[in-house]
Write a structure and sequence with these properties.
It contains 4 helices and no strands. The chain has 72 residues and is mostly helical. It has a domain at 1-50. The protein is elongated. The N and C termini lie far apart (58 Å).
């Protein structure tokens, strides 16, 4: 799929230069960035797992106190 972006010419030149420093074309760099943004299903699964486990612990009434937190 081809996508047209409207960006400032100077911004495009700076981005093209930075991509070239990384050994990539601007097109390659943008494609890889979009793949990371849209395609990281593993990260979504980890976030869902974190949310599922959050707040499910049981401290059985025990609470941290300042002295215990700063013991060395």
């Amino acid at each position: 799929m081809n996508i047209t972006l409207s960006i400032d010419e100077k911004l495009a030149e700076r981005a093209r230069h930075k991509a070239a420093v990384l050994g990539k074309s601007l097109n390659e760099y943008i494609r890889e960035s979009l793949q990371k943004l849209a395609g990281d299903d593993e990260m979504e699964a980890r976030i869902a797992r974190f949310h599922a486990l959050s707040g499910t612990g049981n401290s059985m009434g025990w609470k941290f106190n300042r002295d215990e937190l700063h013991e060395r």
